[in-house]
Please model this.
Amino acid sequence: MNLFFSNTLKKLRMESGVSQQELADKLYVARTTIVRWETGSRLPDAVMISRLAAALGVNVNVLLDAATHGDACPNVIMVDDRKLILTGGLSILEEVLPDATVTGFTQAEDAIAFAKVNRVALAFLDIELRNTSGLELCRDLLKVYPRTNVVYLTAYSEYAFDAWSTGASGFMLKPITPQGVREQLKTLRYPVWMGDDVP
Model:
């Protein structure tokens, strides 16, 4: 069962404003086939994934990546050079994302080293770090894995304009809250399966 793929497909279909029946008609398959794909009980082959991408008007790599990703726990990181804020933020992320592996870092270089050996699905980055900026760290993380969703954390709203130019998915003012994290999950650039506990 690949719930990551099914979650991605359903999200893309709904964003396209296409019903299950309409998608089935475009692909010349039964509606029950779409239902099986969206519940995770079946996975389409590579040819059908290509046809799905064309029907939904999305890059085929989005669906191929979802199909090969499986349901391994996604890696979520938080980077903040203030330990107290990092500790509090990590506990909130673990509460909201119980099916994710959540790891914290106070140093940008440690986060990059981690990302090179662990695919990071979602990164919460403080913009003002001691030896670098979160903006630069975002660029470095995206070089390692371009589909990492980055959400900036800061106490200063004036950074928002610069933050959007880096390819980030979101921006949160501190302090980090469970509701704030949930809102960010709804607007990620790349869908991430986080489990049924996340509304």
Q: What stands out?
A: The mean pLDDT is 86. The longest strand covers residues 120-126. Residues 3-69 form a domain with the 434 Repressor (Amino-terminal Domain) fold (CATH 1.10.260.40). The chain has two domains: 3-69, 75-185.
